[in-house]
Specification:
about 20% strand, 13 helices, 23 strands, five-stranded mixed β-sheet, Immunoglobulin-like
């Protein structure tokens, strides 16, 4: 028995030192288990080390006043699931297991103590963040709405926790939540939820997101960020509002997410008929990736892991893109036929990629190979068309449209692309096409500048997109988002949320500099040269024509006479 308590004391001391060294703020307090109980005052954050294979820990909140209408209990870990229950014997309607556990505690009239029972099925212990937030009757007995109080979807009777579904294939995160109920006096029956004139339909929901500043944050950093998304005041201060839900909206939202970029989501529900009283749901953390252990199954040090095959293939693609982008940016118009190949490969590659994604169930690798194959065919076809026919206007038009595509997709990657109107496919498609047509309208009369700027613009983007991938940025999704929008069913419903970091702002600042230097170098390299070289096939054909005519003159007087007459006729016509 003494050995057990010694181990408990040592583990508590170690976790205290660990959390203090990890940067936890002074508002967080570590807790000490006393007879398997955790004393948790209202509105205080406590970090506790929960041992593995335990089922007897009780979180106790004492001295609950009569003014308390209800309270939300929260328990968070970085990457492991714990179980919280409002009853000592876990049951379906009162028990939840998750990385973020949220429970609504509705006290009876005379109840003055709140108890939550915590258990763990993990083999090792795990640090957890605990808090209990009370909601009291306000001015003129105004009552705050109860988050998740009209749950009709999930297992809990009242469920204030947000639920996340992540699609790693298309990097889409769907956040679902249970409807709230209006506030009601302590000790009375809750208002009915499933009738047509239920007062809950007047409630409004504001959805917020906060991005983690680091790609792979530590436990203390995760707890610090979660704490900033718990109360109404902190959510409004630190979060970014994405959408407001009314009673006619479905209780879910789909977001474009970026692998390895952690986000914290939460919702504020407000009652416009009760002096605009507000209440916060329980925040949930998403890393936008599949979490896997770094050193074995039971280690708490979890990291985002990509599929080995996809990761190696993606590294190869972005490495090649960086090299090709450098050549196109600085030597594109000087190497004219390479330039034609590049701008011909773009529409063919993107087009067939969208067709394969939308209409087949091929693997990511197979689609990538087919995209490269058809892109090569398209590049060769575009280059060959000018080689044989030398049509200048179609060549200029396709290059201008390619550049317009990058210009338009970049515009939609800014806050302009977050407008709700773009969820309508017709409005999005028409506006995207208008953005694409801007470049041909402006630059079609200046062919040399069209070629040079197009090469510098696209080549520089390929450079910064490659660096963005390797450095953990998001600029590579400027094109990817539009391709997915056109090929993935339901992608139009996803909200664009861009977690810009220092690396992204740095690359954005570098982009115009690369365009400028690429433009100046290409302008110097092509100085004194024609805008477009003559058609090689026609040049070769014209070189062969005099020798052919001379041979015909020696062998066929009639043909010579015809040629002479034709020349005279041509001179008359001209």
């Amino acid at each position: 028995m003494k050995t057990k308590w010694c181990c408990w004391g040592l583990s508590t001391a170690l976790i205290t030192i660990y959390l203090q060294c990890g940067g936890v703020t002074s508002q967080n307090a570590t807790c000490i288990l006393v007879d398997d109980n955790i004393d948790l005052p209202f509105s205080e954050h406590k970090i506790c080390h929960i041992p593995g294979n335990t089922s007897g820990i009780t979180v106790v909140v004492k001295n609950v006043t009569m003014a308390t209408q209800f309270a939300t209990f929260q328990m968070h870990t970085r990457d492991k699931s714990l179980t919280g229950s409002l009853t000592r014997a876990p049951s379906t309607g009162t028990t939840m297991s998750s990385r973020s556990v949220g429970l609504d505690w509705i006290p009876t009239y005379a109840q003055d103590t709140m108890k939550v029972y915590v258990s763990s099925e993990l083999k090792d212990g795990v640090p957890a963040l605990f808090t209990a937030l009370p909601y009291d009757a306000g001015i003129n007995n105004s009552l705050a709405p109860v988050p998740g109080g009209c749950n009709q979807v999930f297992m809990l009777e009242d469920d204030p926790t947000l639920h996340i579904n992540y699609d790693p294939g298309y990097q889409i995160t769907t956040v679902l939540f249970a409807a709230a109920n209006v506030g009601y006096p302590r000790g009375e029956f809750e208002p009915v939820c499933d009738v047509a004139d239920s007062p809950r339909y007047r409630l409004e929901y504001d959805f917020y997101v906060r991005f983690l500043p680091l790609t792979d944050p530590s436990t203390s950093e995760v707890f610090t960020e979660l704490k900033r998304m718990m109360t109404v005041e902190e959510i409004e201060k630190y979060g970014k509002k994405i959408k407001t839900f009314k009673h006619k909206d479905k209780p879910l939202i789909t977001l474009m997410t970026y692998e390895g970029h952690g986000s914290i989501y939460n919702i504020i529900v407000k009652d416009p008929m009760s002096l605009h009283r507000k209440a916060a749901y329980v925040p949930v953390l998403s890393y936008a990736c599949n979490m896997t252990p770094h050193h074995g199954y039971n280690n708490t040090d979890m990291h985002c892991q990509l599929s080995v095959t996809v990761d190696k293939g993606t590294i190869l693609v972005y490495t090649f893109a960086a090299l090709a982008g450098f050549v196109i940016c600085y030597f594109g118009h000087r190497l004219f036929f390479l330039e034609l190949f590049f701008f011909g490969a773009l529409p063919f590659g993107f087009g067939f990629h969208m067709v394969f994604v939308a209409n087949t169930s091929l693997s990511h690798i197979a689609i990538s190979v087919l995209t490269a194959l058809f892109g090569t065919i398209g590049g060769c076809a575009f280059m060959g068309s000018y080689w044989f026919f030398g049509r200048e206007m179609p060549t200029m038009l396709l290059i201008a449209l390619d550049t317009g595509l990058l210009f338009s997709t970049t515009l939609f990657f800014t806050p302009f692309g977050t407008l709700d109107v773009w969820h309508t496919t017709a409005a999005y498609g028409l506006t995207l096409m208008c953005g694409i047509l801007i470049v041909p309208v402006v630059l079609i009369l200046f062919p040399k500048w069209l070629f040079i700027l197009s090469s510098a613009f696209w080549g520089s983007y390929m450079i910064i997109a490659s660096f963005s991938y390797f450095l953990g940025g998001i600029l590579q999704f400027i094109i990817i988002n539009v391709v997915r929008r056109a090929s993935v069913p339901g992608y139009e419903a996803a909200y664009l949320v861009t977690p810009f970091r220092v690396i992204d702002y740095t690359l954005v600042a570098m982009w115009p500099l690369l365009v400028l230097t690429g433009t100046l170098i290409q302008r110097k390299l092509v100085e004194g040269r024609p805008v477009m070289p003559p058609c090689p096939y026609k040049v070769r054909k014209n070189k062969r024509r005099p020798s052919s005519d001379e041979h015909d003159a020696n062998t066929s007087p009639r043909r010579l006479e015809a040629n002479e007459n034709s020349s005279l006729l041509d001179n008359v016509i001209n």
